[in-house]
Amino acid sequence: xxxxxxxxxxxxxxxxxxxxxxxxxxxxxxxxxxxxxxxxxxxxxxxxxxxxxxxxxxxxxxxxxxxxxxxxxxxxxxxxxxxxxxxxxxxxxxxxxxxxxxxxxxxxxxxxxxxxxxxxxxxxxxxxxxxxxxxxxxxxxxxxxxxxxxxxxxxxxxxxxxxxxxxxxxxxxxxxxxxxxxxxxxxxxxxxxxxxxxxxxxxxxxxxxxxxxxxxxxxxxxxxxxxxxxxxxxxxxxxxxxxxxxxxxxxxxxxxxxxxxxxxxxxxxxxxxxxxxxxxxxxxxxxxxxxxxxxxxxxxxxxxxxxxxxxxxxxxxxxxxxxxxxxxxxxxxxxxxxxxxxxxxxxxxxxxxxxxxxxxxxxxxxxxxxxxxxxxxxxxxxxxxxxxxxxxxxxxxxxxxxxxxxxxxxxxxxxxxxxxxxxxx
Length: 425
Ligand SMILES: [Ca+2]
Hints:
Elements: H1 2-15, H2 25-29, H3 34-48, H4 52-65, H5 71-82, H6 86-100, H7 106-127, E1 164-167, E2 170-174, E3 187-191, E4 194-197, H8 203-211, H9 229-236, H10 256-265, H11 273-281, H12 305-315, E5 355-361, E6 383-386, E7 404-406, E8 415-417, E9 420-422
Parallel strand pairs: 5-8
Antiparallel strand pairs: 1-4, 2-3, 4-9, 5-6, 6-7
């Protein structure tokens, strides 16, 4: 009865031209197309029923299509908060606060900050990284007993998906004293067992997610800050989506949110940076997945002479090849083509082909607990990417400990991803 009385009164106020109510999510939703409105409604329903994972999938789709709706980041952050998943909760909630700046109520700000606090604590517990010990040489023995076999064989039966490799838990030395300051100091990290995709996610695999209605179709164009239209056209020819014969090539030109959405759909998440590095080099501190030998055309897809001639012909650019032999692929290669480049665990393409998004925000290793120090560019927090790409010609980019950093909204011709998940032991 009270509602019935109030509603006409509200309409009457608007009708006589009094000031409009403040902008609310529902008002923003009024500008959406019918499909997006239906998606938002369904996401809200799922959220209210406590089906956070399903709600997050829908909200991620919406967020990809509607970056202007910053409230979606809050709602996504809330879903991940209730799912107790610190990485995506923190990135969404922090982005939300960064975008909102002062355009936020004190109550809302307080609540979001409380969630961030809790998620930071949970992340610290999950990571189980020992408090930075005095730095020791990477050659020093790890605190755990050495495994019976020096190179643990993959154990695909232990709860990992068929396309994944099982990585045992344990301690390893992360970072590399030979590389630039981002990769230092070398520090000890302890990991729980996990599963990681044996190869980069392919165009065909990504299409399955699109067909299931869980991933938005990629635009097959590049994107980054201040990109000129002519450059967008020039470089987007190297995007793998929507071109014939590319099914087994890695999906590229996808941003961090698209990569995250795919991995959630596939029952996992992006690997943490530490998981990625351990899967790439194991425990012995090697430089590359295959060992310490410098890159050659049999071990990875980087920019060999085939790529340099292509760049000359199609782009009128001079790129110096990284090695003298033709590696077979001028741009991206089908995944899994370089078994000689396998990591100690048998994970493929960890060097070359495409860089890979990880789930982690970039922080220097020595300041990793102070996330406020790592804001960049506009307001977005950088995400770490790893492994080097097909157009690279600096050997250090392919080192297993080398760290890239990219704005999460960027889409690049040499950046894809693979997924991971905790192992069910
Ligand atoms: Ca190549």
